[in-house]
Amino acid sequence: MKKTNSVDYKEAGVDINEGNRAVELIKDATASTFNEHVLAPIGSFASMYDISWLAKEYKVPILVQSVDGVGTKIVVAQMANDFSTIGEDLFYACTNDIAVHGAKPLTFLDYIANDKLRAETVATIVSGIAKACKECSVALVGGETAEMPGVYLHNQHDLVGLVTGIVDKHKIIDGKDVENGDIILGVGSSGLHTNGYSLARKVLFEKAKLKVNQLT
Questions:
Q1: Coil, strand or helix: which one is 182?
Q2: Could you say which of 5, 110, 198, 215 has the lowest number of CB atoms within 10 Å?
Q3: What pLDDT, in 10s, does the model give residues 143-191?
Q4: Is residue 11 part of a domain?
Q5: C-alpha–C-alpha distance, residues 110 and 120, integer Å
Q6: Alpha helices in the chain (DSSP H)
Q7: Across-strand partners of 44?
Q8: Which residues, listed in sequence order, are joined to residue 109 by a DSSP beta bridge?
Q9: The CATH number of the domain where 137 resides is what?
Q10: Distance CA 74, CA 26 (A)
Q11: Which residues on adjacent β-strands are paired with residue 145?
């Protein structure tokens, strides 16, 4: 049999050392969101969260969960080479989906995938997530980074978040009690948030030929 030279993960496009460096960069931001209910340390294979206290504050506690991403807004962050706020966008995209049902968010998990792991970029994204978590008293209990050359294009990222919340069964908001004559309150949006970016990019960058630095 013909001998072949050995090939390691780094040659295959997966840098384990860079992954470990990313963990070092994000561990303080992540730990800063922990509370007394978080049991598993950073680096554990799975998150652990003590829910025994719910029995004291909720009559019939119902878990409410949502998974979401930031859509094509991540492309704009890549174009601007600015990932400082996209983590916050991810958190609120998920959390809004359970807040509309009256649920209080408790924990958050993130998934960050890319063609080539860049520790500083991951740290910047996670710092944004942690900032939003702390503002809402939510524990960032874990996450995953995936370096997948051949799946993603150069400098391309994918972000996914999972939020878990709680609501008392009798306080669930589901629209069943809506009746004719009810008042509808509309709250003005401060921007596109994470919706409509495919159309916005088409209009601004392809049709109008604008650059990212011309939008501010």
A1: coil
A2: 5
A3: 999 999 889 888 888 999 999 999 999 999 998 989 999 999 888 888 8
A4: no
A5: 16
A6: 16-31, 54-57, 73-80, 86-99, 119-135, 197-201
A7: none
A8: 142, 162
A9: 3.30.1330.10
A10: 20
A11: 112
CA distances from 38 to 47, 176, 195, 202 (A): 8, 35, 32, 43
The total number of structural domains in the chain stands at 1
What sign has the CA pseudo-torsion 194, 105, 83, 22? negative
Closest CA to 171 of 60, 16, 94, 34: 60
Which residue in 18, 26, 7, 8 sits closest to 116, CA to CA?
A: 18
| Identity at 59, one-letter amino acid code | K
The amino acid at 98: I
Segments forming the whole domain that contains residue 33: 16-169+191-214
Structure pTM? 0.89
What are the tokens at 25? Answer: 């960069």
pLDDT digits (tens, 9 = 90+) for 99-153: 999 999 999 999 999 999 999 999 999 999 999 999 999 999 999 999 998 898 8
Q: How far is 2 from 98, CA to CA, in rounded Å?
A: 59
